[in-house]
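Obj.: predict assembly geometry.
Materials: sequence records (below).
Method: joint structure prediction, all chains together.
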Amino acid sequence: MTYIAKPKLHHPSLVKNKAGYTRRDYEGAVSTLCAGCGHDSISAAIIQACYELDILPHQVAKLSGIGCSSKAPTYFVGASHGFNTVHGRMPSVMTGANLANKDLIYMGVSGDGDSASIGLGQFAHVMRRGVNMTYIVMNNGVYGLTKGQFSATADKGSISKKGVANSDESIDLVSLAILMGATFVGRSFSGDKHQLVPLIKAAMAHKGAAFLDVISPCVAFNNHAGSTKSYEYVREHNEALNRLDFIESREEITTRYDPGTTTTVQQHDGSFLRLRKLGEEYDASDKVAAMKRVQEGLAAGEVVTGLLYLDPTPKDLHHNLNTVDAPLNTLDTADLCPGSGVLDRINASLR
Amino acid sequence: MKPTDISNPDYFHKVVDCQWACPAHTPVPEYIRLIAHGRYSDAYMINWKSNVFPGILGRTCDRPCEPACRRSRVEDETLVKGKKEPVAICRLKRVAADYKDDEGILAAMPKAPAKNGKRVACIGGGPASLTVARDLAVLGYEIVIYDQDPKLGGFIRTQIPHFRLPEHVIDEEVGYITGIGNIEFRHQKIDSMKKVLTEGYDAVFVGSGAPRGRDLDVPGRQEAAANIHIGLDWLSSVSFGHTTKVGKRVIVLGGGNTAMDCCRTARRLGGDDVKVIVRSGFDEMKASPWEKEDAMGEDIPILNMLVPKEVKHDNGKIKGVLFEKVKAEYDDKGRRTLKPSGEPDEFHECDDVLVAIGQENAFPWIEADAGIEFDRWGLPKLGETTLQSTNKKIFFGGDAAFGPKNIIWAAAHGHDAAISIHKMLIGENVEERPAPGVNIVSQKMGIHEWSYDNAPTIDHRFKVPHRAKQEALKDIMAEVELGFDPKLAFNEAQRCLNCDVQTVFTGKLCIECDACVDICPMDCITFTPNAEEKELRQQLMAPALNPTQDLYIGNDLKTDRVMVKDEDVCLHCGLCAERCPTGAWDMRKYYMEMTQAEHACRQH
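Observations (raw structure tokens):
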């Protein structure tokens, strides 16, 4: 909790982006989360990503469920649309919103409780339907708002603040998302903005179901020895498979890398993703290999991060439903009720 | 870069830009906060201890603190609706003097203890000598101050017009010093240093100022002498009531603050058509910007790039001055020379000319064999901090030391000289200077509560109300500036960023959660691999482009990175500490006071 609003004064070198806004213009209200909460860093990364993508705030819709994470949309991109839904039901509200107006940029913000417990079913379906969105789970492994009980993503055997070991298996949302058909899946860490910001940018540019599992330590209830979601543990066990550079157009690729160390992928919207190899050979476009590597990581106690799976040519919900190009909410009565003549023609075609 | 050594008192002192820039190192933010709290007397006493003349300086100081003020680097023109401006530090000082409890202050003044048997002579009764007297009288020294004028104050009394500095303010603040006791004033012009030395003083302090105004050397100067006056002498004569009028058309030559005082005084003594004519360009003029502004506000035009060539007269009756037009040329080293522009000469009619083209030091009364060596500019050879001359018993300060400066420098010199004199007379090494007194205390009051107003305001600098021009020009005794009222003073005080409340970082406690980085409104905090300063300055959240401002390097982090904070633009809003979950950041008030003679010696 912070008593004063963030001062409006800013660094003299703050520059405006192509949309005419400074990074500070993408901020929201001052955070009421606990000091040091990883969620605030993710909010800052989203702010940075939106600023760098020259996004018009009024074209963003932020949807969230219930929980600490789901409070977070208040703290970024204040001038956008927001919907705080019923617990675990954000995916269906987002699906509906996306159906009605596909022109907005959809950002779902949820937590491990909201997505892996009460909303697990909704989570699975929004992925398999391919809703064009960026779905971010701020994953801290505990129920922070109810004082730190283990959530469904807590690793088996990790120790609670009170000293009790978790006896249940954990749900790995990354594996689940890949399995359910998400076409952009990554994992990152709130304490590593160099990795997180490009992932958010690439996910926002992705024209399909993009999912980011962001480990976000709960300073109040899950940042102690024995926790597997603490700042220290994640830093020590972070196994980044690649580094992502998000490039808006081909002309801007200037830095040269040794051949064989980078893979460049073009996304549907024309943007390029350049994956810099870190150590081992990893092909993010191979779904089966991705699932295997993520599971291997889990077994080895690694926190595997980076862009884990990417289908650069996804088919989204609107494609699958074969909707018209215009957003449905812009269709007027004449479009929706074309008259009895048209109805007669349709009926005739069915006879 | 090496981790910052915050135990070095200079590090945090430098962050308090105003205090660092002040020759006397007055703890500015502390007294500004006290003014905001309505504790005017406490604010006054902080000033009084540090700079001796708060009421006088609050009206006349050259305010080196203000150009240094961080506020003028961080304001946003669109937010504050105006150009970036420092806090009105100088005028807030006056607020402390205006609203203090006079009786309480008088009662709080120190009293001289029993005499210690040592006698010190001060030559000249200006701010430097008065400071020496104050600092030494409280230690039991017997002080004798000599001055050629009938009252103490020196330049303050004789050269600064009363419409800028009312005489009662001088009387009051000089009175605080003489009231200490053990200080004797002798209205006596000194014409021989050797004679002073024969009187058995244990030490002599020379604070005689830079009393000689430079003269004009052009044809016609001598013939028309009746209407050509040296600015310094003329102001002094006005101050003592010997001169009460001036011609209708007046030309003031020179571009310094004395010229500004001359022209504004002339406007009040019958000058209807007063103009200032300067050799240099407008921006290079030595006068403070606000003094130029005030002069122009009284309908006094300032004409630039004109060099006086000849005084035209009719058998000694002045007609005017002929000027040559010049232009500035710069050589490859950036040195300026004024070359004739080739345009026709300009003639300006006038009834009187006031010459304010500079001051010179003059020590005709110091004999060559008095043991004091002078340099080739005619200034005494002195120890830079000790102010001791080559005659170990004789010290210099104020304008007499390093040439014309200003009142706040005189006070700073006075403190330094007093320390030297005291050290010498108790047999300590004068070269060993006392360390400042430093106190650093956390300002945390609750989980997210600080003992200072940490939310920066976005108000534009408030203007000091002025007396109406018509009224002001009618009466030479009427003070033009009316001073802030308490409400304006509060609002102006709230513009202060509290730079003395320092962001102190303890790396061992840090969990590197980035909360401080994310909340900092100025993007001044970065966690990054260490590098050389030049590289680091470029790889921060926002580039640190002001090399005069330090980077604060914090180490002891688990990841072996360093915390780098660019001190340049920090608002001291405390949000980094407020968002820090582990108390790795803390806001600590750094109170630094220069050690004066009273506590400077016998450290054991």
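Conclusions so far: The mean pLDDT of chain A is 92.
To do: check interface contacts against the pulldown list.
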